[in-house]
Write a structure and sequence with these properties.
193 residues, 6-stranded mixed sheet, 5 helices, globular
């Protein structure tokens, strides 16, 4: 497996391409912005599909362009109406096959109702979108945000099933690990954000 990161748009969104080195097939996570760059990388890296971690505007600006170029875009049903258009609905606990890689979907509502993380099975990697960052959960002080729900999602869906060495690749900023974040859960609950 190889993972490519592109930092795009006005608020520095992380866009990831997860690629199977054996088959050359790849998956793009979050068509956020700078569609010309993303389309070039899709062609170069063998992207077959685009998945969205959630439907906030800063994560979906390139969706029309990638769809126009023939790439299918998938999003959770609860966030689907936030996209201008999409092709497939992501279900919780499904497995996306990318060459020989298996990527499991993990519903983590809270930042938005349809927030979704992606775990690369057999390797210590999770792509968390805006659910989990270094230092805590993503912003829930929005119309669709729910702080108790995002805490529950992080605790039950990520911390309960992922090992401490799991690399967390978030939707913005630097990477972290599950082990680095897990000890701070009670602090996040107390501070309320």
């Amino acid at each position: 497996m190889e993972i490519h990161r592109y930092v795009v748009g006005p608020i520095d969104n992380n866009v990831f391409v997860v690629r199977c080195k054996q088959t050359g097939e790849a998956l793009l996570v979050d068509a956020a912005n700078e569609h010309d760059l993303l389309l070039t990388q899709c062609r170069v890296l063998g992207v077959r599909q685009v998945v969205e971690t959630h439907g906030h505007w800063d994560h979906i600006q390139a969706v029309p362009a990638v769809r126009d170029a023939g790439y299918e875009v998938a999003v959770a049903a609860a966030d689907a109406a936030m996209l201008p258009a999409y092709d497939l609905v992501l279900e919780d606990d499904a497995v996306l096959e990318v060459g020989r890689l298996k990527i499991r979907t993990v519903a983590t509502p809270g930042h938005t109702p349809g927030s979704m993380c992606f775990v690369v099975e057999g390797s210590p990697v999770v792509l968390t979108g805006d659910t989990l960052f270094p230092g805590g959960p993503g912003n829930t002080q929005t119309e669709l945000g729910d702080f108790p729900l995002i805490l529950s999602s992080i605790d039950r869906r990520l911390f309960a099933s992922l090992t401490d060495d799991t690399l967390v690749l978030p939707g913005h900023g630097a990477d972290t690990t599950i082990g680095r974040e897990r000890p701070h859960f009670d602090e996040w609950a107390e501070r309320g954000w």
